[in-house]
Amino acid sequence: MNIFGIFYEDDDQEIIEFLNYQRRTYTIRMRVDHMTLWDDHDFRIRFRISKVVVLQVLDHINDQISSLTDRNHAVTSINKLLLALRFYATGNFLITSGDFLGVSKTTASLIVRDVSIAIAKLRPRFIQMPTTEREISKLQRSFYQIARFPRTIGAIDCTHVKIQNPGGPNAEYFRNRKGYFSINVQTIACPNLKIMDVVARWPGSCHDQTIFKKSQIYYNLINGKWGNSIIVADSGYANSRHVVTPFLNPRNDIEELYNESIIRTRNPVERSYGVLKRRFPILSLGLRLKLETTQAVIVACCVLHNIACDNNDMDPPALDIVLPENENINIEEQQPEGENARQQLMQEYFVHF
């Protein structure tokens, strides 16, 4: 029997292809030094944050993302960070971000994952609710100065971040009421548009109120961590002792006055979404990554947003595209939970205006 003859049969075509396979030539692409190539204006247009913020972030995560060796032209820490920022800034394909820094699509994918996780780990340092009486009092005064709404320490809302179909038996849980796959992200904002809390683990089908009642913030509120402080929300949340919402159908001047005050007071959370998604358009255009990496990217963008705010980098550069508007999908009014702060405020505060 001629054993070599079997390799030419149709059934063994895969074996022939395997034996004839030749590995692609290892290519070293030229990598541009973007920190020196661009001035501050052009740099912010391309990476959405300033060089000062980039260097500050790099100082925090350098040990986590640096390569163990310089052999084989290893990508430097600064280039890894810039690649991830470019990906956040464009919402483009990984291969495009890789070409921008001179690496392959596979390498770009690994870099985006590692950098996003490293930045997301900075969350306890840069995303914080008030912890001391002094911080609580200062926050309440800041909110009061907006529209004279008392006792407020935060404005809460949710926004949907579009994702690709995650696959698996639970994929349909991520399909929201608008029909696309998303993660429903809850944040709490303060008057200077910084994010004080973020929850980015719930599928798009989950209601805002459900996410809130399963969050650590809810348990801290009902356990009295912030005293009699309240959080302002829209009508997708239920009124309670610590959460207040507007009247959907105000019946008199006092309720009209209350609505005007609370709507202006909760405006920072809506504005924070606008700034966040203009700074990092990937949150508007959608992510095509694994679910775990997607969650890390969302938290990382929130951390970067806060660091930029700390450095007075409040207004991201203008975009050449029109982003989708932030959608408020869960708008139906929730029933009050027994004794609620809205009723108390109406009787003890707004009636005297």
Automatic annotation (TrEMBL):
Domain DDE Tnp4: from-to ranges: 156-306
Subcellular compartments: Nucleus
Top-rank taxon: Eukaryota
Required cofactor names: a divalent metal cation
Protein's UniProt keywords contain Membrane: no
GO CC terms in record: nucleus
UniProt family annotation: Belongs to the HARBI1 family.
Keywords, sorted A to Z: Hydrolase, Metal-binding, Nuclease, Nucleus
Any one Gene Ontology molecular-function term assigned to this protein's record: nuclease activity
UniProt protein name: DDE Tnp4 domain-containing protein
Principal location listed in the UniProt entry: nucleus
One Pfam family hit: DDE_Tnp_4
